Every structure is written in structure tokens, then in C-alpha cells.
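MODEL INPUT / OUTPUT PAIR
PAIR INDEX: 1
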Amino acid sequence: MSDGAPEGEAYARRLEAIVAGHRGEAAVAERLLHDDDAGVRAAALGALARCGALRAEQVERALGDEAATVRCRAAELAPPEVELVGLLSDPDASVVEVVAAALGERDRDPEPVAELCRVARSHDDPLCRESAAAALGAIAAGLDAEAGAPHAAAADPDAEAGAPHAAARGMALETLLAAMDDRPQIRRRALLGLYQFDDDRAADAVRAALEDRDRQVRAVAGELLGVPVR
């Protein structure tokens, strides 16, 4: 019984944090951010977000938490001004996976592309490679307008800022093409990203996927191209 008591107490505090979020009790949630139990700290982050009271500095502090559970929750809740790219090198794969997905939501930011390409190409965990490939597709789609508007340079002398966007799209394209040699679930993610590109190699890769050895990959290619698959 004594071994279960601390766990039961932590569960009660996690529940307290969750209830505080629903009741708008930000002060309670903020107090629980400093709890000894990682699950309580993660729940407190979510409660503050639900209250509309989560501050960027609280997220940044949580991103350095010793517990991967807390770092994951902080990455999920991080506002755009909080830097996440460094956590793509986190030693815990679950954090890398969540951070990659979070960066994919920032769909007009070229900054994380190089690190996402590294993860998509070489991370040991396939879930991390899959999450990075999905993020690259989302970011590439978001950068499409900037990279695809060369006429802007003539009208705006500062339009050289579009160059990083074009470079990021180029890196993303090469990585997604390489991902077509990875596991089936990663190939499916890569296909969705490649379809965003007005590029002959991307189009060829999508068409070639109609003959992929994995039926689900073929199904994705068929849905994208509007053709039946066997």
C-alpha cells in the first residue's frame, strides 16, 4: 500500500490540474507547474493553456524539463515565438517526433528545414523520420507563394528575403525524394509532401508510387492523381 500512495497522490494532483484548467483557475495550475511529478507538470501546462494564461517563458522553461513527457507537452503548446529547432536534437525520440510535428504547423518558416531534413534522412527512429517528412511537406506548401513569386524582386528591393524560402523548398524536395526509399509509412508522408511541388522529379515520384510494393502507398498515389490502383 505504501508504494502506491505516492502514485495515488500524484494522480490526485494531476486531476487537480486538469480541473483547474476547466475552471479557469490559472493560479492553481501555475502552482502545479513546479510539482515533483512530471505528469502533474505536463497537466499544469495544458491547464494554463486552456485558461489562456500560458506564457512563453513558462513554455521555454518546460522545454528544458528533465522529463520527456513535459518537454513533449511544452512543444505541443509552444507559441510561434518560442524556438523549437534545437529540440530536434533531443536525446528522447518522442520529443523529436512531437517537435517535428509542431514545427510543421509553422508553415511559412524556412528556419527549421535544414534540421528537419537531417531528422528525416538519418534519425534512428522511423516515427521521427515520418514526423519530419510530414513537417517538410507542410512547410514547403506554406513557402510556395514566396518561392514561386520571382516578380516580387522587381517591385521590392528587399525581396531577396525570398531566397531562403526557395532554398528551403529545394532542400525539402531533395529530402522527400530520398524518403521514397524509406519505410512505407514514411513514403506515404513523403508522397503528400511531393505533391505540393511543381517539379518534374516530384511528379515522376508520385506517378512511380502507383507501382509501389506497398498497397497503402499505391492508394495514396492513386488518390492524389485521381486514378484507380490495383
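PAIR INDEX: 2
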Amino acid sequence: MILNKERVKILLVAIVFIAASKAFSQTKPNIIVILTDDQGWADVGFNGATDIPTDNLDRLASQGVIFSNGYVSHPYCSPSRAGLLTGRYQARFGHDCNMPYKVENDETVGTPLSEKLIPEALKEQGYRTSAIGKWHLGDHPDLYPPAQGFDHWFGFPGGGMNYWGNSTDDIHTVYRDRKIVPESELSYLTDDFTNEAIKFISKKDDKPFFMYLAYNAPHAPDHATRAYLEKTKHIEYAGRSVYAAMVNAVDTNVGKIDSTLVANGIKDNTIVVFLSDNGGRMQHADNRPNRGHKGMLFEGGIKVPFFINWPNKINGGQTYSKPISSLDLFPTLLNAAQGDISKEPQLDGVDLMPFIHNTNKGNPHDVLFWRSSGNFEYAVRKGKFKLYKSAYKDKTLLFDLEKDHLERNDIASEHPEIIADLEKTYKAWDAKNMAPGWYDPHAENVKKEEKLWENTRKKSLKNK
């Protein structure tokens, strides 16, 4: 009888412990990182867009904190994503370039499995994980999301795809986990990705979730449905009108996701991060007032629309103006999930929450670095000064971003001592990096673009 009572006591203690564990786990926030592709700084209302309707994004931004100096770690797609998901400068592991064409059978081309990604860290904290949309971190099946910490995957592995789901080869095919999704089940990818996201969010599960929702919009090709085109018919420039419809499609679908969070009673304890993978593309996007575009290390290529929304922990109506980076998402989200970033010493980012809450009044970063295609181009921002070794202009430029945030006045010749200091700082950082593991056509494309720029200006003089 005594034995039975002891068993009952043990059972009761176990029940209480399990209940307490569940309650503890439920305090952990759900996390959604929404990444757009090639979206310009001024292609959202919260950064000044007046032509593209982005009411849902603007509302979510106003309910959280907007980063007016939010950077990504690279000026184009694949390397930027590698930096975001690892929390490390992608140069640390030689991921400076997009995937070269037709190397899908090479498992060494892409973010290596030895790198720890956000989903892997969050799984250690009891999270279920999902990757939806564009991957672009490795075309080989061994490097697909299921091998990199994601329980669930719905998307395509390559860098670009048409919006109707028409397959062209293995890396331009939509998968659910590792099975090909029939084209008959696809309609318009922005909508399809959202529908899959809503299913994952609505699944009944005791575990909190992490979702990496990487829309391929508004990356080319320029495809939009009649419904979205109707919302941007007021834009008379046709190319911009179609691009705007693609952005509006993202906004409409983000609104659906927000409504799903509300309907499931989990909005207040869900972190929603929104940013673009790099500056807006050369055609149709709007990076104003910043100089440059995707591919460049001018502000227009690396500064992106960026906000975090978390009703339980972040007061709305905030704008944070000190420089932050997409590298900061890993430590910020891990700490929010009650993890321990001190156990991740390899991270290059910082936890942003103390800065958002103003308990840390310092700078999140004293120095930020960028490296493209090895050292074909590079930049370093230290305090108010930014050095840019530009292959486009074939010279090293220096800007005082406090006095000249538009980067119009190169002051390199006036401050050789600052150039020397920033070069020394950059070289010390780069000494810890790896050489690129592969190359893409970026260098050739830069030379072609700059030549076209020069020829166009010369023609204008001849015709004057």
C-alpha cells in the first residue's frame, strides 16, 4: 500500500513537471522571418513609397520597430541569405558568390553542412521549423533545407523561377520536403507559399515554431495576376506597375499571415521580422534616396527595408537609427527563444533587444564589413566613415555618412589617414576569412554595366 502511495506521488510529480515544462515552452515566441527578393528601400510605405500599396507591411512596421539603417551582409542573393541564416559573415566560409550555373551535382558549392543555421539552433530549444520559398544556398540535394535544420520545406532550391510553377530543371522545381509538387497544384507562387505557410502555422502542436518565409517576389521574371495588377494600374510606367503588383502581392499575403496569427490567438507572442535580401534590382525598383542598386556596395545595394514586430516585448511606433545587420537576427532570435548565445561564439551579430529597449545605449556595431567575389569589391563602415573599393568606378571611395548619407561626395583624397586606417581594419578582418569557394559572373557583369553607363553618358554629349 505504501508502495502504491509512493508511486502515486511520483506520478503526480511527473504530471506537474510535464505541465510546467509545457507552460514554459509555450512562453517561447513563435518566429517568422519574411524575406523578399531584390526589393528596393523605397518600395514600402514605411520608407516613403507613395505608389505601391503596402498597407499590411506598413501597419506591422508601425506596431514594432523600423530599422532606418538596416543592412544586409552582401549586395546580392545567395551570399546575403547565407549570412542571414548562419549569423556569420559568409566570407568566413567562402560563400561570396551566387551559385554558378549547372553545378547542381557538386555538393561543395553552397553553405556547408558544418555551418550551424538558425533552425538548427532553435530545434535545440524545442522548435519545429519550416523553410518556404526560395532557398539558393546549394543546388545539390545534400544541401537542401531538410539537411540544414528544417523539418518542413516547400519551395525551390535555385536562385530564380517563374511565378506559375513551370519547371525547367531540377533546381527550378517546387518541392514539398523532397518530393516534387505537381504543377497542377500550383497557381501563383507568392500565393502558394503563403497558403503553405498558413497550413504550417495553423497545425496543432505544443511546440513553438520557426518559419523562414523567403518569397521570390519581386525578383524577375515580372509576373503578376490580374487581381494584383488591378491594384497598381494607377502607375503609368508599365514596368514599374508590374513590379509594384508583385510587391503588393507580398503585402496582401503578409496580411493573410497576420490574420492567421490573430485567428489562432498567437499574434502577441509571435516575432515577425521583415527585410529584403539586398537592395532593389536595377530595373523598376526604387532605392531612393540611396545611391546604387543590387550588386553594388553603395547604400542602395546593401541597405534594405527592415522591421521587427513582437507585440509582447516590443512597443510599437519606434524607429531605430543606429546601424544594424541581418547578421544580428541569429543571436536576437536565439536569445528570444531562451537560448544562450554565449554558446555560439562564432556569431558575428549581436542581440538587438537591449538596443531596442534602450537598456544598452551603445552601438550594436562599431564596424561593419562587406566583401564581394573575394576582394573584387569590398567596403567597411567604421563610425561615420565608409570606405568602398568600387570595381564599378575602379577606385577607392570614402564617404562621411553623417554629412553625406547620399554618398555624393568622395572625400578620399582629403583624408589619406582615414583611408589607411579603414584599409588596415578591413585587412585584419579579411585575414580570418576564406577564399571564395567558387565564382559567379558578377565581375564580368559589373564591367559590362559600367561600360554601358559610360557609353550612354557619352552619347548624350554627342547629341547635345
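PAIR 2 NOTE: The domain at 374-462 is CATH 3.30.1120.10 (Arylsulfatase, C-terminal domain).
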